[in-house]
Sequence to fold (429 residues):
Amino acid sequence: MNTNKQPAGREGPGIIVVGGGPAGIMAAGRAGELGVKATLIEKNPQLGLKLLLTGGGRCNVTNSAGLKGFIGAFGANGKFLYRALSVFSSRSLTGFLNSHGVPTRADPDGKIFPADDKAQSVLGALSSYLRHGRVKVACGLQVSSLLLREGAALEGVALSDGSILRGKKVIVATGGMSYPKTGSTGGGYALARQCGHTIVPLRPGLTALESDEVFIKDLQGLTLQNVTLAVLVNGVRTAAGKGDLLFTHFGVSGPRLLLLSGAAVDGFGTGGRVELSVNLKPDRTPEELNAESRAYFAANGGKQLTSYFRTILPGSLAPVFERLCGADRARQCASITAAERKKIVGLLADFRIHLTRPRPLQEATVTRGGVNLAEIDPQTMESRLVRGLYFCGEVVDLDGLTGGYNLQEAFSTGYLAGQSAAGTMDAEL
Fold:
């Protein structure tokens, strides 16, 4: 799309939307649909760069969960989304996409994708929405500040090239801090601070975690399937779930680990000792594990202890277990005592990994923190501090589970912001 630069001081559109991701496109499109002039400003050469990366290019746009499920996916802040999700729900989104020639399908786990598994198709639908609403799109431009008169009256935005774009309403949809190569570099936080908004501290969300355990390098590339994971902070379990765990060169990752990472990041923030407890045999009780190990040792008394570990564990994990148990791997199974067997069983049910920190925010799936929700009206997405200023998408303090929840939040809050801004424009005419 062409860049439409306007000379300094020229009267611009009624609504200016800053940020050309899902939230910004939806906000500008909705304003245009309601007949209000809108300009969408994106600093990248094209719209939707981060959208094109989501779901490995397949674009998990939303989830089939109901309103209660969506609100729950955002934890304590979820209630803020009640209005936005009611105005533009998951069903609204799939209907919107279908009306623009993009049918969707739902996986058994509730994740909803475009039927062709192409993020480009979703971006195409959004681009069509902008065209139908006659939204002006200005790519390759960056907003440096908001234009505010005395009394915090909003007049437009100043651009990094020195020009000014005037408008009655501004919607900030600049995203968070993850994936900076796509343009998510935190510019919206500076705009929010400029007019007195507070920013809830930024942290990585849905992120891999680092460990200083010496055995991590030995386990790199190993995936433990269907194990139970628990995050412990100072020995207290703060989050748990079942799924796969992937060992990397720096620590641990995997879909379930990402979902639990928020509890670990919060633990790091308090300065506490953070550990990951892995139950390698979640379908066995300690009593069953003890009975099975006793039966193995009785039937294979002449074999070395290492044979047992290699029977019940993946190859790269077996030698790690041998070291952690402290037993001589060459000892015969018949010589293993009840106390030693108890230690082995205990380690199978509670394999501890000391965690040191999350991966950098730039690598996180989403950004936790952002513009304080107490300073935004959830009924309209308008700032409570500056009339005519709106926020939507990842720039606000909202982060949800994986599975399409975060994209739906962006679409819903963007839609509500665009609708609200357009509605107040009509009221002022």
